[in-house]
Amino acid sequence: MSMEELSKTRSGSLGADRPDRLLAQPFSGWTYEDMNDAIDAFIKDSHLDDYAHYIRRGAFLAQSKHAFPRGSQRPDGLMLKDFERRYLRLEDSPRRIDKFKQPWRMYALVGLCSLAAAVQGWDETAVNGAQIYYREALGITGKDGWIGLVNSAPYLCCAFSCWLNYPLNRLLDRRGVIFVTCLISSFSCLGQAFAQTWRQLFAARFLLGLGIGPKSATIPIYTSEAAPANIRGALVMSWQIWTACGIMLGYIAGVVLAGVRNGSNDSICNHQAGNLLFYDCSLNWRLMLASPMVLPLAVAAYIYTLPESPRWLLMRAREGNRKKYEEAFLALCKLRHTKLQAGRDLFLMNYLIAGEEINMTQERPFRELFTLPRNRRALTASVILMFLQQFCGVNVTAYYSSTVLKDHAHYSDQAALLISMGFGIINFVFALPAVWTIDTFGRRNLLLATFPFMALFQILVAIGFLLPDLSSSQHILVVLGMYLFGIAYSPGEGPVPFVYSAESMPLYNRDFGMGIVTSINWFWNFFISITWPKFNTAFTTSGAFFWYAAWCVVGWFAILFFVPETKDRSLEELDRVFSQSTGENMRFGLEQLKWWVARYVLMKRGVKKPEILAPDEVPEEIIDMRGEGEYYPGLYDEVVDEEKDYGRGTSPT
């Protein structure tokens, strides 16, 4: 029986109303004969006879990590080598740092993807300092609508270009999309530097959105498909952390390049022939806008030195290009320590893709996002977080802090740029702890703990703008509130939305869900960017920051009632989490709020903390992984002591 036939059989046995069980519990209930049949069928289909030894042993490891316990002889004669055991023990080590001991090629891939993330952040904040100068140089000072349109142009394009991610990946593959979008980013940044009118600048920045949108959707997927499962969350989160790094670099570039001659001074340019860039030749803002162009060229130059996504190669192989099977295996060999691990992951990926194809044929994954209650709750929670990432007001600071500080707090150009740079540094530095806290403290808890402080610090900024213009207290409150807001935002609402959205969707329609929520994020990014200049005038600067503080309060209650925790949950447990009705989630949130008030406000001891899920039980429909047969009696029941010994400090090498 082929793997596809086994998958369909198992899908039916696990229940037609729970198709995700096939993906959440691979090889559950498979007998030794089932596994052998599937392995033989896969090797025959893939023409990987030269690597059959690694794939066969890896397939049994994919079924159970205890398939080769030390001291037990398997009747089929398969066994592991000592160095293979050492690397497998690293995967399950209780010391978290051991999970980060990965091949250098894996970290080269993560490093280049992080560099591409920094490109995006730099693209976003290059305009922050530049707009102080280009408003006058291009003759749009006081024209809030045009300034907002120019600044928001990339995000308007991103709201639509994210939907090109699927066809672009079909045409160019993962690395090809990254290569092309990085070139677009580089050339459009250069084009911004040569703009002579605000319309030309708008066109160049709109084109920049073609480089930002598909890249922002492809790189997290590329990283997650290449990374080992045990550190996938931390590596995927590197996208947001290094975006924050790019934001910081954009601010730094604004400070460094501000001293270059200013073309708004007629005594310097004066429309004289031979002057650089003709008239309005201010080099400072032009160099600021062009400064991000170098990093994407470095990414484009080295992206093809890295292996393609193994999962993407497998999908191509299953569509008929059989040579891609070997490419996928060799790619995994570069991204894993041993060929055994590569064989295991290849076999497992192929099975999961087969399951996805069955589900996508039987159901309609795009429609399921809205019709199935479990998926709809996950989509709702993800949309809430993406919306709040924009309406907490962080990008007002990211895009407009320099002009706000200059025009409304009466800072000099240089001081406004330096203060904005400080915010960028804080945004990056305080995002780093989230690598650890997001998996220990939890996604939901991070958000609930930081949103009240975000509201408080936005109020602090608003009060600062209410004080008399020449008061030193105004300066202190505005800058202090801005910096403290960055400290509260960076470890919570900064990285959590993208991580949460990626893990909350079922595997078989995750691409569709991520496309929707990413597009929503960019749309509200555009909305905030284009409306701020007029919004600032109509509401006053103080009123605008009070408005975003109010949204932080609203967001806290939305998270409390509609965003369940996903920390430390496997796929099947996440299915249980999002299967809880919205009413149950709201009741739990209310009980959690009552418990917090009783415990920390009224200081009552012994108050029982509410839990939304009952203690873990093995669902009846889940078949034991040992299978139905008696081929290896007691094999998986044996207590494996080597992991315990390793946890006490035994060296893995």
Work out the radius of gyration: 27 Å
Give the helix proportion (percent range).
Answer: over 70%
Structural class: mainly alpha
User: What would the principal axes of the Cα set say about the shape?
Assistant: globular
In this structure, how is the largest beta sheet organized? none
> Would you state the CATH class of one domain?
Mainly Alpha
**Overall pLDDT, averaged?**
80
Report the end-to-end length measured between terminal Cα atoms.
40 Å
Helices, by number, come to 28
User: At CATH's second level, what is the architecture of one domain?
Assistant: Up-down Bundle
What name is given to the CATH topology of one domain? Growth Hormone, Chain: A
Based on DSSP secondary structure assignment, what is the total number of beta strands?
Answer: 0
